[in-house]
Amino acid sequence: MIYLTHYRTASTENVELFDDIIYPQKVHWFPDTYNRTKSGLVYVPHKLAEKVLDPELLANLRENPVNKTAFILAGGNAHFAGIGQRPYDSRLTYTYKFLPFTLTQVYAGRIAQSFGEMDSITTDASACASSLKVMTDVVNLIDFYDYERVIVLTVEDGVSNAVLEFFGDSKAVLTEKQEQEGIKPSAFDSVNFGFRIGQGAALAVFESREAVARQGVKPHARLVGAYSASERSTNAIGQCEDGEGFIKAMEGAMHYSNVSSDEIKIVKTHGTGTASNNKAEKNALTQTLKAFVATSYKQKIGHTMGSSGLLETLLLLDDIKLGVVPAIENRTETDSIFLSESTAPPNGLIMSLAAGMGNIYSAAIFKGM
Questions:
Q1: Cβ distance 306 to 200 under 8 Å?
Q2: CA-wise closest residue to 307 among 164, 154, 167
Q3: DSSP 3-state helix, strand, coil percentages of the chain (rounded to 5)?
């Protein structure tokens, strides 16, 4: 068995309008992550990661080593600093002077040292599915390769000129013009739709049953299983609206976990609120599962890109501990499945979903403790 023993999250409901970029839009961000970036000595994703790299937790892990430890950096789309956007200046524009340290594997090797000795250091760049996709790596390392601890750090520079421009070009984010027209971020709704970009990071420590018993730690949850899949598609940044990718990921996760569909009672959706994802995810869930409730976090904290799958799962675990599965914000219709009102958590397993451009869909199953 695999247990989630420690975690830290960083996300914000703080929203600010950026009107000096090509597609003016509101974003969820930590302004302090951009302090001193114009000097070229500060790289935003590193500053964002610092919010979850708790020195006390790092010291605890160093002082309590296990037999084999792996470190995984789930970096989403893994942008270079200052590369990719059109040549214009905004308060987000900066050029990092130490470009090699923006490479995810170099950064992973640097950060992994702070946790103590490592037997494996890897990275993942599976776009917005990245942090949930690596749950399959966690399962494989602990169940089949005798690792006792796997540390996952997920962070991506979502609030950047390059990302905001790309999603503005693709008409995926809510623009300020749409918000002025009265549209609010939501998912599975006939009136409100879409998302804002957000900054976010998460750190999670997964350990084997033997390591947990030896240390006497109290787990937060159990990772039951995970699976990732792709669908038949001719569009690398599109989705099949019948939900094929989500269905394959969910069915794979349940199959390899020996879990039946009626055991899944709570779903953390990908929940971007785009027309295609609304159709794809809703079709997949209603065809694959039975009695369940579904929520989404992107309306509250923004789309944190590669961090979103795991970060949102951890936020859901926090809410469940408080006795609630939160509603999907800004729903205009009464809905007891794709929640328009918060509800008490039903007894059962949690399914977490994510999707990434490049045709990847990920599902992970958790059991709260």
A1: no
A2: 154
A3: 35, 25, 40
62 by DSSP, 3-state: which?
helix
The two structure tokens encoding residue 196:
């804002």
**Alpha carbon distance 14, 262 (integer Å):** 37
Looking at residue 303, the DSSP 8-state letter turns out to be B
Q: What's the rounded Cα separation, in Å, for the pair 84 and 99?
A: 14
Average pLDDT over residues 4-18: 97
CA-nearest of 266, 354, 338 to 305 is 354
Average pLDDT over residues 70-93: 72
Q: Identity (one letter) of the amino acid at 284?
A: A
In sign, the C-alpha dihedral spanning 114, 117, 121, 127 is: negative
Q: Residue 78's pLDDT band (boundaries 50, 70, 90)?
A: low
User: What tokens does 25 get?
Assistant: 């839009």
* CA within 13 Å, CB half, 167: 27
pLDDT score of 76? 86
> How, if at all, do strands 200-208 and 2-10 pair?
antiparallel
Q: In whole angstroms, what is the distance from residue 84 CA to residue 10 CA? A: 26
- Model confidence over 138-184: pLDDT tens digits? 999 999 999 999 999 999 888 888 889 888 888 889 999 999 999 99
Helix axes 244-257, 275-288, angle to 10 degrees: 40
Question: Could you report the per-residue pLDDT of 230-280, keeping only the tens digit for each?
Answer: 999 877 777 899 999 999 999 999 999 999 999 999 999 999 999 999 999
- Helix extents (H) in the chain: 44-49, 55-63, 104-112, 130-133, 135-144, 161-169, 176-180, 209-215, 244-257, 275-288, 298-301, 308-321
Report CA-CA distances (Å) from 315 to 124, 168, 215.
22, 27, 25
CA distance 118 to 67: 10
